[in-house]
Amino acid sequence: MERHKIEPHKKIIFTKHLFIDLAKECGLNAAIFEQLGSGRDTEIVVDNDTLEVLVKLQEQFARLEEMGDDEYRGFYIELPRPTPAEWGDCEASTADGEYENKEEYLRDWELSNPRETVWYHVSSARYKEKRTIQFTDRKHSYFTIANYSRYGDRIDDCFYPEWQRDFFVKLALYFHKLIDAIIQDPEGFNAYVANHLPYQQRNGRIARKEFNRIEPRFKIEVKDETTAIKALEDSVCKNFGRPLDTMTIRSYCKYYRIAHEAYDRYFERFDTTRKKRSLPNGVPLELQDVAYYNMVKFCDLQDKYALDSETDFNKFASDHYGELGLSRLNILASDFDSPGWRIIVSNSYSAYVDVAVEVATALYKSGAPLEIHDADKLLRILKEEDHVKLIPYTFHDYMGHHEEGTFINFHGSTNVWIVRRMFYH
Q1: Which sequence spans correspond to the domains of the chain?
Q2: HEC string of the chain?
Q3: Residue 226 has pLDDT above 90, yes or no
Q4: pLDDT for 2 beyond 50
Q5: Residue 402: pLDDT over 80
Q6: How does 109-134 read in b/e, with b if 16+ C-beta sit within 10 Å?
Q7: What is the pLDDT of residue 138?
Q8: What is the mean pLDDT of residues 34-50?
Q9: What is the pLDDT of residues 119-138, one digit of tens each?
Q10: Which of 165, 209, 248, 395 has the most CB atoms less than 10 A away?
């Protein structure tokens, strides 16, 4: 099979074989990266002797156009799996009894390295004197090379300096040759990545209506959709209802209890063993909402605050006072930019959309002067008028900063029909 080597002044054609040959020429393969990413500590912190090599590595990246803050530059690379000889010593392993014969060794090699090539994303950044090169697959961080540690003042690492320097030299040669090729034909490089990057490592989006049809188990539904939509539409139109003249701890606890009971009812659907909350006997009617808050939050508000004082409410309303469980779904009271007080439903990161809508609907039915944050997004989600974003990895995603209504982790087991209908970017 013909191989395509990168030669000066020769037109580059980006192919899988070009990437394989380049990596082999520089002594790199996917097994080295997997080994570096398999340890507990995936930092390589350079010392004074190897700092120069890191600087030279980043000088290669500096030949490309900046892509973000802190001199950020990044691109994908494709590395071959190790050959049987690179993966281990067949003869020694057979002699030691680990394998019965060469055929068994080769079967194990194939099982351990099923893909002919593996894709990684590599990025370089520099902030003042701090330098970093990071290798990931867009979901897992394999290893980082830096001149500082994220874990404090530590200057040593888990690798022998000789091995480390040898690895850096190979990387420097690899990036020098690859970046030469990218500069010669950036459009060809981008086209190759666009056509061959595994979909598990891409960002994509799909119309929610189409997504729900293919994967109905992910459809976001609420019990009383008609009222939920009316509540959201009112918030979108800023019809918040008549604001309250004042806000006290006693009146706030009334709305918090309504919201929290709706929150509890939601989770009772999935856990029939979930213990239902009940107030102690003998609690006066006028203190029952406060007692409920005390029970949920493990506090004694009446011992610390005047329950009917707006001044004391402002002292009380801090930190996570309105959070329901550990959901990052908050029920707040606010007079900001308003002639009176409103009850706010704030759906932040890590919170379920359907829980937020159920809670908001319960408050709406109670007659609360209600403002629902991100109501326009929640409304489009319920009406199936938005998109779902599928990405390799998401953690603590805030609703408000992206166009799509929700994110979902996209991985190899995802329905093939979704893959065919996704718009990649």
Answers
A1: 16-81+116-197, 206-424
A2: CCCCCCCCCCCCCCCHHHHHHHHHHCCCCHHHHHHHHCCCCCEEECCHHHHHHHHHHHHHHCCCCCCECCCEEEEEEEEECCCHHHHCCHHHHHHCCCCCCHHHHHHHHHHHCCCCEEEEEEEEEEECCEEEEEEECCCCEEEEEECCCCCCCCCCCCCCHHHHHHHHHHHHHHHHHHHHHHHHCHHHHHHHHHHHCCHHHCCEEEEHHHHHHHCHHHCCCCCCHHHHHHHHHHHHCCCCCCCECCCCHHHHHHHHHHHHHHHHHHHHCCCCCCCCCCCCCCCCHHHHHHHHHHHHHCCCHHHHCCCCCHHHHHHHCCCCCCECCCCCEEEEEECCCCCCEEEEEEECCCCCHHHHHHHHHHHHHCCCCEEECCHHHHHHHHCCCCEEEEECCCCCCCHHHCCCCEEEECCCCCCHHHHHHCEEC
A3: yes
A4: no
A5: no
A6: beeebeeebbbbbbbbbbeeeebbbb
A7: 80
A8: 78
A9: 999 999 999 999 999 999 88
A10: 248
To which residue do tokens 């609703």 refer? 399
pTM of this prediction? 0.71
Token reading at 226: 């008609």
pLDDT of 183 reads 94
Question: What mean pLDDT comes out for the span 209-231?
Answer: 92
pLDDT in the model for residue 418 = 55
Cβ contacts of residue 402 below 8 Å, gap of 6+?
389
Q: What is the pLDDT of residues 257-312, one digit of tens each?
A: 999 999 999 988 888 777 788 898 999 999 999 999 999 999 999 999 999 999 99
